[in-house]
Specification:
The structure is a single chain. The chain contains 7 helices and 12 strands. The chain has 350 residues and is α+β, with helices and mostly antiparallel strands. The strands form 3 sheets. The chain has a 5-stranded antiparallel sheet with strand order 1-2-3-6-5, with no helix packed on it. The longest helix is centred in the N-terminal third of the chain and has 55 residues. One of its GO terms (biological process) is proteolysis. Its cofactor is Zn(2+). GO terms for molecular function: metalloaminopeptidase activity; peptide binding; zinc ion binding. Keywords: Aminopeptidase, Hydrolase, Membrane, Metal-binding, Metalloprotease, Protease, Transmembrane, Transmembrane helix, Zinc.
C-alpha cells in the first residue's frame, strides 16, 4: 500500500512514497476469487460437454449394435450390451463429476486458506500496530536537492521514469516510534557535522549563506547528546541526528532523528557567550534533544498523557541548561523552581 504526498518546492514537484511492510492482501484475494470463479465455470462446462459427448457416442454405438443384433435375432446379447453400456455411462458421468468437484474444491479451498491467512495477518498487524510502528521511507527528489528522514540514508539511484533529473533516496527502517514523530525534509540546504562520544553523527542543515552561523549550535547539540547519554545511561538507537533550521516555525519539533528548529534561534549566535540569543538557543536545543529520550524513546500511550512528555522534558531541560551555562535566565529559573517544588512536595516520592 503506498501513500504518495506531493510537495511543491518552487517549480519542482517531489513525490514522497511511504512504503509499509506489506502490500494490501485484499486485492490479491479478490483477484484470486475471480480466477477461481472462472476456473469453476470452465470446469463445469468442460465436464458437461464431456458427459454429453460420451453419452452421444455411446448411444450412437449402442443403437447401431442393437439394430444389427435385432436383425440377426440375438435378443439376449442385446440385453447384456444395453446393461453394460448403461453401467459404463454411469461410471463415466460419476468420474467426470467427481474430478470436476475435486478441482473446484481445491481451487476454492486454496482461496479459503488464503482468506483465513489474510484475516489472521490483518488481525496481528492491527494488534501489533497498537504497540509499535516501523517506517521505511523512500523519497523521489530533484538531484539539486537533499532529502532527509528520521533514519539514515541507505542509497540513492536514478529514476528516469519519474523525471530526467530525479533520484530515489532510500532510508533505513526506523526503530519503533509513534507516527507523530515521522518527518521528512527536502531542500537545497548545506550542512556541517560532528560526532558524539559514542559515534552518533550530528548534522546542522541551514541555507548555504548561513552555514557559518551554525557552528555554535553544532557544538551545543553534540554536548547535549553526550550529556543526556551519560545522564540516562541509555543509548539512542539511531546512528544520526539532524537539526534543520526552519523559517516561520513556532519553535522546535523533536521528530526522532530529524529535529526542526526555528532558524533565528540557532543561526544568530556566534561562539561569544554574550550573545543575547544564547539563552534561547540553550533552552530550545536542550528541550528538543531531551525529547529524543522523553517522548521519542519512551512515549505516552495516548495524548491525554502528553504532560508526561513535556513535564519530564522540561525538568531535564533545565538540568541540562545549567550544565551548558551556569548563568540562568529568569524563564529557566522559574521552570526549575516549579519542577523542584513538585519533586520535593510531600508525598511526591509515592
Amino acid at each position: 500500500m503506498r501513500l504518495k504526498i506531493l510537495l511543491k518546492i518552487g517549480s519542482k514537484v517531489i513525490t514522497l512514497q511511504f512504503l509499509q511492510f506489506f502490500k494490501s492482501p485484499f486485492l490479491v484475494v479478490v483477484s484470486e476469487v475471480v480466477v477461481v470463479i472462472v476456473v469453476v465455470v470452465v470446469v463445469v462446462v468442460v465436464a458437461v460437454v464431456e458427459v454429453v459427448v460420451v453419452v452421444v457416442v455411446v448411444v450412437v454405438v449402442v443403437v447401431g449394435v442393437v439394430i444389427v443384433l435385432v436383425a440377426v435375432g440375438a435378443v439376449l446379447v442385446i440385453i447384456v450390451i444395453v446393461v453394460v453400456v448403461v453401467v459404463v455411462v454411469v461410471v463415466v458421468v460419476v468420474v467426470v463429476v467427481v474430478v470436476a468437484v475435486v478441482i473446484v474444491m481445491v481451487a476454492v479451498g486454496a482461496v479459503v486458506v488464503k482468506v483465513v491467512v489474510v484475516v489472521v495477518v490483518v488481525v496481528v498487524v492491527v494488534v501489533v500496530a497498537e504497540v509499535i510502528a516501523l517506517f521505511l521511507m523512500r523519497i523521489v527528489r530533484n538531484k539539486s536537492h537533499t532529502s532527509l528522514s528520521n533514519a539514515k540514508l541507505i542509497s540513492t539511484r536514478d529514476v528516469p521514469r519519474a523525471c530526467q533529473d530525479c533520484v530515489l533516496d532510500t532510508f533505513f527502517r526506523t526503530p519503533k516510534m509513534s507516527t507523530y514523530l515521522v518527518a521528512v525534509a527536502v531542500s537545497e540546504y548545506h550542512n556541517i557535522s560532528a560526532q558524539t562520544k559514542d559515534g552518533k553523527l550530528i548534522r546542522i542543515f541551514t541555507p548555504e549563506n548561513r552555514i557559518d552561523q551554525a557552528e555554535y549550535t553544532l557544538n551545543t547539540t553534540v554536548k547535549l547528546f553526550n550529556y543526556f547519554k551519560d545522564f540516562f545511561f541509555v543509548e539512542q538507537p539511531l546512528t544520526k541526528y539532524d537539526v534543520v533550521a526552519v523559517s516561520n516555525h513556532p519553535g522546535g519539533m523533536e521528530n526522532w532523528g530529524l529535529i526542526f528548529v526555528v532558524d533565528f534561534a540557532i543561526l544568530n549566535c556566534a561562539p561569544a557567550r554574550n550573545c543575547e540569543l544564547t539563552d534561547i538557543l540553550h533552552e530550545l536545543m536542550a528541550h528538543e534533544v531531551a525529547h529524543q529520550w522523553f517522548g521519542n524513546l519512551v512515549t505516552m500511550k495516548w495524548w491525554d498523557d502528553i504532560w508526561l512528555n513535556e513535564g519530564f522534558t522540561t525538568y531535564i531541560t533545565n538540568i541540562a541548561w545549567t550544565f551548558l551555562d551556569n548563568s540562568t535566565s529568569e524563564v529557566s529559573r522559574g521552570n526549575t523552581n516549579v519542577c523542584k517544588k513538585m519533586v520535593d512536595a510531600p508525598g511526591s516520592s509515592e
